[in-house]
Amino acid sequence: MITCIACRRANLHLFDVMQPSNILVYDLGGGTLDITLHNVLWEPSASFFIIDDLAIGSRTRVGGDTIDRLIANYILDNWSACKNLSEADGQKLAYELPIFSEKFKKAWGAEYDSTGDKENFKHPFQATFLEGQFPIRYYISKSQMAEILSPLLCEGLTLASGTALDPQRAFDEPAFTNLLNTLILPVLEVILKAKQSSGEIPKIDAVLLNGGMTYFPPVRDRLQSLFGDVPIIDGHNPDRAVARGAALYAAGQGSSNRLKG
Description:
Blueprint lengths: L1 H4 L15 E8 L4 E11 L4 E9 L7 H15 L8 H28 L7 E8 L4 E8 H12 L5 H5 L10 H4 L7 H14 L7 E5 L6 H11 L4 E2 L7 H14 L7
Parallel strand pairs: 1-6, 6-7
Antiparallel strand pairs: 1-2, 2-3, 4-5
Helix pairs in contact: 2-3
């Protein structure tokens, strides 16, 4: 619930909080993805939000670290000189690459956001490894990054395909057991959990982003394609949403119980 209170700090003018609204919180950090669904209503006479928790997803072991490893593995597979390394150097490089991949990922995302020609964009994965003895310079384009992230982005999944599943059986079927640690299937899990408790698929009125990895353009783009016209709220500082929500919650609890949930 605390995360959802951060909606007060975000762009709630995108929809009417004077009416009950279902807000899905998408919290993607370095190591985990947490997704929750809340019904939120602003009570103007008392100046507080009424918040009802509709569904809490499983904590999945996917995040920025997962993306770093995928980038590192892509370089290992595609930089031909890697195949000539000794076993010891190969193991050392496999350790060093994910560390640099985190820096590369941030640089790639920042450059991608600033370019006007996204279809032809590419950015070099460039550094020297193995104590300065092994240089790598490999350009990664938009399409290549999509290929790298394809195990996580689940392009074949849509809200319609997921919500058509029977929530009584879906959580034990291969679609869930095999794909839970991805960036998309946990969304469907939360929606199905809400259906399981209420008997119907909930309408999503907005998606609130939280966590530093929601800055990464491929993540935002995939969520936009998944949710279509549903507003996606980042509040310009998604990595601070939980902290701000917690502060607001504490202030409300400590004063006049103005935040109800």
